[in-house]
Amino acid sequence: MPGRTFRYGIEHECAMLRADGSFADFTAVSFEELQAIVEALPEDPDDYPQLRIGDQGIKRKRWYVEGYERFDERGELVRCDPKGIEVRTRIHTSIEDATAALGADLAQLDAEAARAGLATTTVAFNPLRSHYRIDPPLNAWERDHRLGSPEERTAHLHMTTYGPDLNLSCADLDAAALVDVGRKLTHYSPWLVPLSFSSPFRDGEPWGGLSARTQVRTGARPAVLVFLGPDDEQVPADPSLTQPARLPAEVGRIEFKAFDACPGQDLYAELLSLLTGLVLDDTLPGRRTTPDGPLHREVAEEGLGDPDVHAGTGALLDAATAALAGRDADLARMASLRGRWERRECPAVAMLAEHAAGRPVAGLRNDAVARP
After folding, report:
1. Considering the entire predicted model, what is its pTM?
2. Each residue of 77-101: pLDDT tens digit?
3. 81 CB contacts (<8 Å, ≥6 apart)?
4. Number of helices (H) and strands (E), helices first, in the chain?
């Protein structure tokens, strides 16, 4: 088991701020403004064929404008309402290389955004608006397109949420083993996600919990996607557990989608080590084809502050650590993650403390506290 070789990739969604610190969502920034930032960033032909460009050609670089695309009755792109900019890495042979690549690309993005009077910020849910309204309503072509899969049907939900796709693959796993890993991670998702919670604000104020993203998203959308080859049997599920790989480099990818967006790269590195350990583990019995939405919503409120959730997360850390025996770098990251767990720490706790002290957080101010 410890000798297995993994490959890693990260997709990170950035929310945007104006120079005055105000939140720049789909109501306050245009696709053209964000696309101008992307166009100023370099295009590297070596990124392909590892990265998918997509049907509309928007995803031509490691950076691209993330949003909701609108089409006319013939299926021609009319506009894209933006929610932010996504950064994605190539496929790397180590967690260290994947997180370093993400850090370097975020630095390039920040530099170009600053020239345009914008900045990136990390928050997992729009702190001002809970809903994105599809306006005008979908036309006939769009209805056919958007109702074709569970993910397309719920695509509007992602307009208020920000998170990572943490990707890993192992060449030793066949399709059946990949599906089993996907079902395992889906089952244990409620005890994994609290380590990442970073969405304590909603509709302009603290909402009383730690992850508005988890409350709104998980259950309606997948916790995990597994990308299978063209001859592999797909698993029928709503939301999906498996999808056909869209390019050869995706075959065998396990994509954990339920974490909140995390500040910095250290926590992503630790979470990738945790996922690696859970893939290697052969002791945990839980399996689910679709995520437990009600349980995710419960966990989103107190996270690791709930004794039962804290204990469940601790058991997963134990299992992953045992499975990572002999992988020293992973074990060092697991020790750091265990420290966060022991302190019941997640980014949302620090964000709430900053807000309570009257300091702006992700475009949200608390002027009432800040005034003497």
Report:
1. 0.95
2. 999 999 999 999 999 999 999 999 9
3. 26, 31, 67, 68, 70, 132, 159
4. 12, 10
